[in-house]
């Protein structure tokens, strides 16, 4: 048990499976997750990466509380930086990433989900940043990514209360892209992955780069980068194929 990576038909699937702790992340889980992410980044064949928890009860129930319970301040900082670096590696994957949330996404679980590009939740999913109930704060990016994703009002509500939020509440806050009935979750995620795969890999990669860089800086700098990457698209055979296919009234082959 731990983290497994399978790659099939352009789709990488990362499954975090620690049933005895509702998939909570200890050091070993984070190390394995980083190895899986590195393998995906080094595999040019992968066009979508899916992250999910093993079993149906939990996506990830956070960082492992037993593992953290006797940490010193220095160890806590090191652990936070390590988790941040793994989740940064996920957010820096060139291919689009989808978090599939079928149960508890708590603390580091929500932070993992928001390190992915898209979040598809089962109607049974629930989300929380319960760290203040443990005397700590979110440490794997939650104070930063959550605020950027759903705005300071909702982020502060989640972080200050530690309350659990249903999938539908998460949808209303913009925390998830879609809520799907539990038995249709995998089917919907597969369809979404196929839809992404049908597009130009080069176009999607450059679009992700423009969006991610744009989020870090000013509108002007973001627009400059967009123009440069837009131009770069015209050096790619995929632009020729995409536009030729349109003119010839056929589907493009990427
Ligand atoms: N760490 C370690 N063990 C955990 C865990 C966690 N985050 N979450 C669950 N488990 C373990 C439980 O201790 C329990 O183990 P035992 O069977 O050995 O007692 C097992 O998983 C099953 O859990 P429960 O019996 O508690 O199941 P439940 O259905 O009654 O409750 C739950 C489920 C609401 C998720 C509850 O387990 C819970 O509140 N877990 C803690 C969630 C949490 O606070 N997460 C945030 C961690 S801090 C963090 O993530 C910091 C950060 O930013 C990186």
TrEMBL record:
Keyword match Iron-sulfur = no
Q: Which N-terminal residues, if any, form the signal peptide? A: none
Keywords, in A-Z order? Lyase
Annotated GO MF terms: 3-hydroxyacyl-CoA dehydratase activity
User: Which GO biological-process labels does this protein carry?
Assistant: fatty acid beta-oxidation
Q: Which family does it belong to?
A: Belongs to the enoyl-CoA hydratase/isomerase family.
Q: How does it assemble?
A: Homotetramer.
User: Protein name, please?
Assistant: short-chain-enoyl-CoA hydratase
> What is the organism field in this record?
Desulfosporosinus lacus DSM 15449
């Amino acid at each position: 048990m731990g983290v497994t990576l399978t790659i099939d038909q352009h789709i990488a699937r990362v499954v975090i499976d620690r049933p005895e702790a509702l998939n909570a992340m200890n050091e070993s889980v984070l190390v394995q997750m980083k190895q899986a992410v590195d393998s995906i980044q080094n595999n040019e064949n992968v066009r979508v990466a899916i992250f999910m928890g093993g079993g149906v009860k939990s996506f990830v129930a956070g960082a492992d509380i037993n593992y953290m319970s006797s940490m010193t301040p220095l160890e806590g900082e090191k652990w936070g930086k390590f988790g941040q670096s793994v989740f940064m590696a996920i957010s820096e994957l060139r291919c689009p990433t989808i978090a599939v949330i079928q149960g508890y996404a708590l603390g580091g679980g929500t932070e993992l989900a928001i390190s992915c590009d898209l979040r598809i939740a089962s109607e049974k999913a629930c989300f929380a940043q319960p760290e203040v109930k443990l005397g700590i704060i979110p440490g794997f990016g939650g104070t930063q990514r959550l605020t950027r994703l759903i705005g300071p009002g909702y982020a502060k509500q989640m972080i200050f209360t530690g309350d659990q939020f249903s999938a539908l509440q998460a949808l209303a806050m913009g925390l998830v892209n879609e809520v799907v009935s539990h038995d249709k979750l995998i089917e919907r995620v597969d369809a979404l992955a196929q839809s992404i795969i049908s597009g130009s890999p080069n176009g999607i990669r450059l679009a992700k780069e423009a969006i991610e860089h744009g989020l870090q800086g000013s509108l002007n700098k973001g627009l400059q980068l967009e123009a440069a990457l837009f131009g770069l698209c015209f050096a790619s055979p995929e632009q020729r194929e995409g536009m030729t296919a349109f003119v010839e009234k056929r589907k493009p082959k990427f």
